[in-house]
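Entry 14. Ran structure prediction on the chain below.
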Amino acid sequence: MDISFYRMLFAALSSAPFFRLRRELAALGALYAPFYVSYVLSVNTVGITLAVAFLYTAPAWVSLWERLRGRGSLLPAALSVAGVYLLSGAPRLEGNFFIALAPGLLYAGVIIYSKELLKRRSPEELLGANVYAFIYAMPMTLFVDPDARALLSGAYLGVVCTTLAYLLFYSGLRELPAWYASVAATLEPTLASLWGALLGERLGPLELSGLALILTSQLLATFSLPRTRTRTPPRTRFRIHTLLPPSPPWLPARISRGRPQAPRGSS
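Output, structure tokens:
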């Protein structure tokens, strides 16, 4: 809980220059606050492995929502969710695993609602929702203990993993469909696993299978994007004489034939 509070605190401080009094941003902040808190509660309840696996069920919820509206594709999302589950080591589902569903559902809500807001707001304006999230989390101060480690962790998570990361994510989400952006977000645990492998962690068959599924989902999602045709300029017939200087007026016509003629009256 302490880390969640400090994360929202530093996210609000770093997003303060973009804060505006907007009802729709207040609604987005109302999704942020429970999302941050529920993920920490999920980690503390079911463990980091299962919490991460269920957090990235978000592409499934977003793709299902988009599909109900006649957009997107379900197959890339299904592959990415299965890939993250295998990449997490296929953790066993415990009796209270439903708690881990909340962050994934809230994350999907953040993506869907942010996509709607980006039709009329800039990515920078959406960062102002972090201030509203912190305002909603103010009652948590009654339960937060001063802790230097939690403070430093919250500062990093708030500035780098929230404000900066969401600014980049929203910049891409503005240009891409919501279902595609949610599938692309599953590259985060993929890159984390690859960094771990470079640092000496061993990836077993399950983890490698998960990586393959996630990468396959990225390819399918990319090929499922609608293609926009760009008009190419018409081809012009190349003539060598266009590279030559104009013919001097004293050159006989039969010699200068095929070369650009100098304008009359020129010397």
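The chain has one domain: 2-224. Will compare against last week's run tomorrow.
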